[in-house]
Give the backbone structure.
Amino acid sequence: GESVGLHLPTLSVQEGDNSIINCAYSNSASDYFIWYKQESGKGPQFIIDIRSNMDKRQGQRVTVLLNKTVKHLSLQIAATQPGDSAVYFCAENIKGTYKYIFGTGTRLKVLA
Amino acid sequence: EAGVAQSPRYKIIEKRQSVAFWCNPISGHATLYWYQQILGQGPKLLIQFQNNGVVDDSQLPKDRFSAERLKGVDSTLKIQPAKLEDSAVYLCASSLGQVKETQYFGPGTRLLVL
């Protein structure tokens, strides 16, 4: 993905609303995708994953959607809470390798 | 289950000095990754080990960076000599070692080069 330096895309949502964070991935050979949450001063934390043979996967309050036609991934967070405030990264795994490529990240700000 | 451990958490050095980071992966994890994360960017893979062998070091600046995982468990990443642009968070991650296995990250080492 392209670097945005210090200017991460930011999504601001009201507490209780749903959040949708988008990610465009780069490699059509990627067949496994992960969403990570990174809080300040911490390493990325696994949220949810999806394999390329699926279009949708649901977890607790989170849903990941995969559109392979346009190489697009989204993370939906239901009833967003203040603790969801963080930077969210998508990562793609290139088929047949252990290599992961991370996107640039989106900062989610939850407004009280 | 203990997570990925890294030390030190913070390091400040002057340019041209050397620095080393240590990582202890989750027990039983065969694959270990070192990433560099510059402020405001996603992690960038530097090197990947499978047990004690290197799988991918294509993005490691080998003129100044080196890494080893001698016994297939702990790993060290060294920078010698450091440059200003090496200021970043260095993240270690591990996974069981199969393709499509989730990576688990440590807290990272924040390096500032002055």
